[in-house]
Amino acid sequence: MIIDLEKYRSKGLKLTPQRLAILEYLDGNTSHPTAEDIYRAVKKKYPTISFATVYNTLQALLRIGEIMELTIDPERRHFDPNTTPHHHVICTECGRIGDVFVDYSDKLRLPENITEEFTITSIHIDFYGVCRHCKKKKGG
Ligand code: ZN
Ligand code: MN
Known about the structure:
This protein is an alpha+beta fold.
């Protein structure tokens, strides 16, 4: 695993061993973990790490634009180290979140009263459904 430390340093992120462990866990991670998921995973390597450290690191990474925060799950906030524009789908049974790499921007038209009022800078679509695993479990 290669993490570009200079990139984080140049953005003013102080790098401690614990923070590095968080970055390592997030690097290439497509599971959209919550702060609790990250805390649990990093704690295995750094048993003394506190939840506050994880939380503060996530806030710092959000501030410098290195991760995204997802609001798709009304229960918990999830984090995504992939900051390239994409959409998400969530299983309403188990909460699993998947990536949707389709650009819908040319298919979506907003009414004029909106575009007169707002310049749209990004679009994020949340899809809700039941995953294959949960569908099978329900006998569907
Ligand atoms: Zn599911
Ligand atoms: Mn994603």
